[in-house]
Predict the 3D structure of the following.
Amino acid sequence: MTSAVTTSVNSLPTWARWMVYTAAGIFVLSVVQSLTDTDKLTSTTTTGAMLRWAVPIMMAGLGGMFSERAGIVNIGLEGMMVLGMWAGAWGTVNYGPWSGLLIGVIGGALGGLVHAIATVSFGVDHIISGVAVLIAAPGVARFLSLEIFSNYDGGSITQSPRLTSAGKFTFPFLAGGRIGNWRSPDWLAWFTEKDWWFVSDLTGALRGLTFNLSVFTILAYALVPTAAFVVWRTKFGLRLRICGEHPTAGETQGINIYLYKYIGVIMSGALAGFGGAFIATPELGGIYLEGSVNNRGFIGLAALIIGNWRPAGVMVGALLFGYPTALGLRDLDGAATHSLLLVAGASLLVIAVVNLRGGRHTDGVLAASIGSLSILWFLLSDTTPDWFVNILPFIIVLLVLAFFSQRLRMPAADGRPYRRGET
Amino acid sequence: MALAAPAGAVLFSFVASGIVLIIAGSNPFSAYRDMLEHASKLEVQVSMLNRATPLYISGVAAAIGFKMNLFNIGVEGQYRMAAIFAAYVGGSVALPGPLHIGLILLTAMVVGGMWAGVAGALYTYRGVNEVIATIMLNGIALGIIAWLVRRWQAPGNIAQVGVGTEPIDDSGLLPTLTWIPELIRDLRATEQLTGVLVIAIVVGIVYHAVLNRTIFGYDLRASGLNPVAARSGGIASRRMALTAMLMSGTVAGLVGMAEIMDKARYDPNFVGFLGFNGIAVALLGRNHPAGIAVGALIWAFLDASSDILQVTETAPKEIVDIMRGVILLTVVIGYEVVRRIRVREEAARAAARLAAANDRSVEVPA
């Protein structure tokens, strides 16, 4: 029976398959919610917060994708986000939120340009150049803050004045948004208030994805299909990808490999800059604050890997990593994060069964033991410590790389130095 | 030629930073004069050595990986994990001097080695890229430390005991070397010369000896230079990667010792970024034990200079961070350019020799 269900799900178009997965995921959360004493797992505020917290991670991941599709590893994303955050805050203070976002994107792109000059033109090792960006970016941001922000009212060497928001949007009908002066009905809220098992959980979760969103958030998510289209369906995307797969083959086609690598790395910085600027908007921080990128560039790299170097995968990875953070925000007693252990344990056991049936015994046994440990931890404790949420993305990536790396495929020439005319 | 790249890079960074300073409205010449004058004082030199010590150890840790073509980006997480565990263990036991010090150092090395060993094992047995693995382990380490530092907070009133782990008894602290500079004259500052300097020197000597005087060192270098040739020569280069990672982490564990021995505890303000700067220092010094020392001293000089710039206000002290980034990028670009020129010259020489040989072989039958 299981195999019949799997086959019919697999025959669906991609978008429908993802909807089935999402519904199944919410179903699992719904079951766990009725077993434990929390209602936060699928609440509107949680999914709304997840959407916001995932944006910087997702933008860093998308940025990393453009760079690595062009064959340049970019571990300097974190630094480019710092530059983007500073530039975004400066632009917002002086010219308003929209120009601020644009200036933040330019700030990140400048970081990307430095990385591109070092790696593409001078053939410096990608990791080394990335480390240089990582070291230099906080220094540049601090220097600029001292020179500029400390002269502003409410600014200092480590922070900017408060920033303004670009505005919010609520979807009409689904979540009761306005059309002109008319307030449309709020259908999802109607269902959510009924408190029907699973159905209300589903609508509550969906309402978080449609209610009171920042226009920047919507823009960020609109970039995911755009990026997918550009990379997979355009001539530009094909040329970009050949730089990461087989640059010498591209060379014989007459493609200017250096140019495309430059574009890829600069776009990478620009997207990371968007992510950085977003951190400073009222959606998350509301000010530029030194240190508030807080590893999200590296988590973006993690999302890129488990997303298999694809835009939709990056988005799912970012949402996956944003979810526990969003949950932890309102979860003062730690009960909701605690129930995540049960979710993780159950999912790992399912993975174990799938692997064992497929004859992959090592993977199956490992997944089963980690899943059992997770459930054991759930049963033996009442809450989880807050650090658990912070390190979860990194642990997930290590587990995925350790056990499922054969499912992942990075661009074939990713990270290799390339010189024109040399093989 | 070998020295041209780093010297040129330092020079270039001074010019580039000078331009930044002029734009920012400061006079670069008076700023540089202040920096040099400041560094000529004995007290400042002691402080520079103190700052260079952890950077040097961190540089050697990174260099061990580089020699084998492994990027240990994880020194950052390894030294912090090692430091908090060493401080906790050191603070919770009472032992006679040498044993106590030995226990603290041993804990640091074992914890650092084990944390790096996770990445090494993932690389060797599961083929996980070591850069990704160590980046992720850094994230995990920082999360765990943020929790441990609260859990291991010294008991008692915060106002009295201060924030941090239980203080280590004097028996666990390495004696300082302040008597050495005092042979010249008495120091007019409270700063002590750290005893960890001796450990750093030992680490440098052992690194040099193991790399150049042992079969293991040969295997390590061979695997780094050409893994395929090394494998066909009978070197288990995958296994070597695990060993190299363990050694790198063991050395990385010692990075935090200078601060632990000075503060006698781990606190939330523990100095960060030593791992990434260690990579920079190793690159500056081309993984050579003496070169790394020069790199560490340059970095320490810039560090110490930032203090004086803040006092004299001839320039914002953050200019120093920009200089570091510029130096690092120009040095690696410089090395790459020099390498390429050498390859080209060598190819030209070989071609010339080949042409000459061909001419002769044509002449012989005639």
